Amino acid sequence: MLKNALPKIVTGQVPGPKAQAIIERRENAIPGAIKCVYPVVIERGEGAMIEDVDGNAYLDWVGGVGVLNIGYSHPEIVDAVKEQSEKYFHGMFNIVTHEGYVSLAEKMNAIVPVRGQEKKTFFANSGAEADENAVKIAKAFTKRPNIIVFSGGFHGRTMLTMTMTSKKAYAHGLGPFPDGIYRAQFPYLYRSPAQMSSEDAIAYYIDSIHRVFEESSPAEYVAAIVVEPLQGEGGFIPAPIEWVQAVRRICDDYGILLIADEVQTGFCRTGKMFASDYWKDAGAEPDIITTAKSIAAGLPISAITARTEIMDSVKGGTIGGTFCGNPLACTSALKVIEIMERDQLDKRACEISEIAFNRFDQWKKNLMSLAMLEELEL
Fold it and tell me: Of 65, 232, 238, 297, whose CB is crowded by the most CB atoms within 10 A?
């Protein structure tokens, strides 16, 4: 089976002749702005392995950029989606109800750690759509115009979310951009300024939020603060729990909603089903959580979850869309969550983490020992 195979290159070089021909066709047919990082043309995938059109086998470390947390072509997902496909592919949820959407919303309401007992969920198609809808909901609930985001943040490529995104290479030449988006500094304790202690660094980064209130938008005009629990594009930097607790207090003091963008971190990637579970354990759960990526093993769907009073503040017709909550994607997502809970993939992530960190620590010790030897020789 491919999923148990070892990587191998049978063409002598990559890409092989078949892949090269398809890549050349791609260059002629697809905008150059949509880059392909690796010279690989996939033929099939199983587990963490992919085989290209030339028969080369690769260990895939990317997983569709955080999408394939249960691997390629999981047989239970394939069977569930096949069964649903024989009934119907599509039913716009604004027009006709399908049970898969309702069941998935109920499941998300049960497991997503947002503040409040009664929760509601609705679905979109991508992480960017989820983040944009979360901002819309926050504005509807608070009746406020502005939001705060952070340095290093990535939230998508729609007009609003690429404005929210810190790295402006994603928005080059595409302005003007929406107003009302202000940026504070994301905490990076490993490289904190002036070699501050962790406590002083937390205070420094929290002060940058207060500076936004002073210099850009008074707190009473801020609808939401949007945070990635662990930044992806920003360098895989976790938000310190002490900082999250302080941000939660700021939100409570000023009536601001706290939005956790879990598009990349959700679904067992951090040792819990959601990274915000760590926030909840610390008494700092967010008001809204957005999820996508690995929710449906590769089928396009994203989710927005919040307590009922927030969701019910939105006027009819302002959320939803043609393909949102597609039946095939809902079926896949329900099966993905079932597999993750049954097979305890959150615990598996912790096991892999322990192995990796032990190895990393050993490398660090080896490098330190080598540096000491070199210093003695000098």
Answer: 297
Angle between helices 345-377 and 327-342 (to 10 degrees): 70
Q: Is residue 70 part of a domain?
A: no
Neighbours of 283 (CB within 10 A): 11
* Domain interval for residue 95: 81-341
E-only strand ranges, the chain: 42-46, 49-52, 57-59, 119-124, 146-150, 181-184, 222-227, 230-231, 237-238, 257-261, 288-291, 302-307
CATH at residue 20: 3.90.1150.10
Alpha-carbon distance of 342 to 348, in angstroms, equals 12
| Conformational region of residue 256, where left means phi above 0, alpha means psi within -120 to 50, and beta covers everything else | beta
pTM to 2 decimals?
Answer: 0.95
Q: Pick from 344, 324, 342, 346: which is nearest to 334 by CA?
A: 342
List, for residues 324-354, the tens digit of each pLDDT value.
Answer: 999 999 999 999 999 999 999 999 999 999 9
Distance of alpha carbon 240 from alpha carbon 188, whole angstroms: 8
Residues 166 and 204: their CA atoms lie apart, in Å, by 19
Q: What is the CATH number of the domain that holds 233?
A: 3.40.640.10
Q: Are residues 294 and 242 in the same domain?
A: yes
